[in-house]
Amino acid sequence: MSNTFLALTEQIYDFMMNNSLREPDVLRRLREETVTSNPQAVMAVSPIQGQFMMSLIKLIGAVKTLEVGVFTGYSSLCTALALPPQGRIVACDVSEEWTSAARRYWAEAGVADKITLRLAPAVETLDTLLAEGQAGTFDFAFIDADKQNYDNYYERALHLVRKGGLIIFDNMLWYGKVADPGVQDADTVALRSLNEKLHYDERVFVSLIAVGDGMSLAIKQSD
After folding, report:
1. How far is CA 135 from the centre of its chain?
2. What is the pLDDT along the chain (223 residues), one digit of tens a residue?
3. Do residues 87 and 65 touch, judged by C-beta distance below 8 A?
4. Backbone φ and ψ of 86, nearest 5°
5. Phi/psi-derived region of residue 104, left when phi > 0, alpha when psi is between -120 and 50, beta in every other case
6. Which residue from 205, 211, 204, 175 is spatially nearest to 192, judged by alpha carbons?
């Protein structure tokens, strides 16, 4: 089978940035601060991914959303800016240090009131939401956190989102390592396993796309 993907060279990426990206100044400054001041900056979604997520949020008319893995807040700020005025985000993370940058930019962008940050292990937060009776009330969920817990996050998010709701996973190609059977570290094995599970899971309609480090889009069909 021929490779039908266009290789994303630096020249093509620059073309996309110059001819597609509409990045508000507050997002650009957050991205640049993260790159220059955080040694883990590679963890942030790219601006192309962020804009793609914003398009999907608008497309499905999302109002109530969930984020697992905030980091410095680029993806959550994208989500908040795409949501209508009454839109809300429950954002899960464990780092006070990293999310402090997120809080600053949320406030500056005027969207802090849309975002409830819960600093605790995400599995605990998701279980709490389920215990509170919030199953089926979320329109959208974005998962970009510790890879070995992705399946735990998936099972909980699947109950939390409504039928027709969208769950997005980042890093599902994992720098190509999921496609190499010789790579057997725990993160790669977890992501490889989830890719296979999603492929056959009839509870969702799924599509794995080569955007960024690979994004899986799972539309809920049933519990």
Report:
1. 19
2. 455 667 788 999 899 999 999 999 999 999 999 999 999 999 999 999 999 999 999 999 999 999 999 999 999 999 999 999 999 999 999 999 999 999 999 999 999 999 999 999 999 999 999 999 999 999 999 999 999 999 999 999 999 999 999 999 999 999 999 999 999 999 999 999 999 999 999 999 999 999 999 999 999 999 8
3. yes
4. -85, 0
5. alpha
6. 175
pTM higher than 0.85 for the full model?
yes
Residue-level length of the chain: 223
- Which amino acid appears at position 129 of this protein? L
From the list 51, 44, 54, the residue with the least C-alpha distance to 21 is 51
Residue 107 main-chain phi, psi, to 5 deg: -65, -45
In contact, 214 and 173? CB cutoff 8 Å: yes
| Tokens standing for residue 7 | 């290789």
Give the tokens for residue 11: 């020249």
Q: Annotate the chain with three-state secondary structure.
A: CCCCCCCCCHHHHHHHHHHCCCCCHHHHHHHHHHHHHCCCHHHCCCHHHHHHHHHHHHHHCCCEEEEECCCCCHHHHHHHHHCCCCCEEEEEECCHHHHHHHHHHHHHHCCHHHEEEEECCHHHHHHHHHHCCCCCCEEEEEECCCHHHHHHHHHHHHHHEEEEEEEEECCCCHHHHHHCCCCCCHHHHHHHHHHHHHHHCCCEEEEEECCCCCEEEEEECCC
Retrieve residue 137's tokens.
């009330």
